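Show me any protein, keeping tokens residue-aligned.
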Amino acid sequence: MIPVVSLLCCLAAQQLSATPFPAEVGQEVTVLAVRNAEQEPFAKLAIAVELPGGERRPLGLSDEQGELKFVPEVPGQYVFAADIEGIRVLAPHRVVAARSRWWAALVTVPLGLALLWRNLPWRRWLPRRG
């Protein structure tokens, strides 16, 4: 009985979430505040953030869709917080360093060009050597 009640309380309670998870430094994070299981947006809600260094600062108010945009500047663990009808709601969020994707391009582009050259249809009509 206790697991059922716990599950129902979690589904019916107010929620605060942040997407995408995990985010990269410089990528826009959307914090969403909803009232209940029907995902009714919570407009004009004051949302704060605890930065990785431990500093707390207010972010602002959520818009009519219950969303607030935030761009993290350093990697680490962020915690978004809001007081919804007297209940403190927290949403932990992880931000990682931006990844370089050049190594993948350096490997896959030459490989793709080699496969394209190998499978070109007009090569069948060329005379074969040896």
About this structure: The helical segments are 2-12, 102-118.
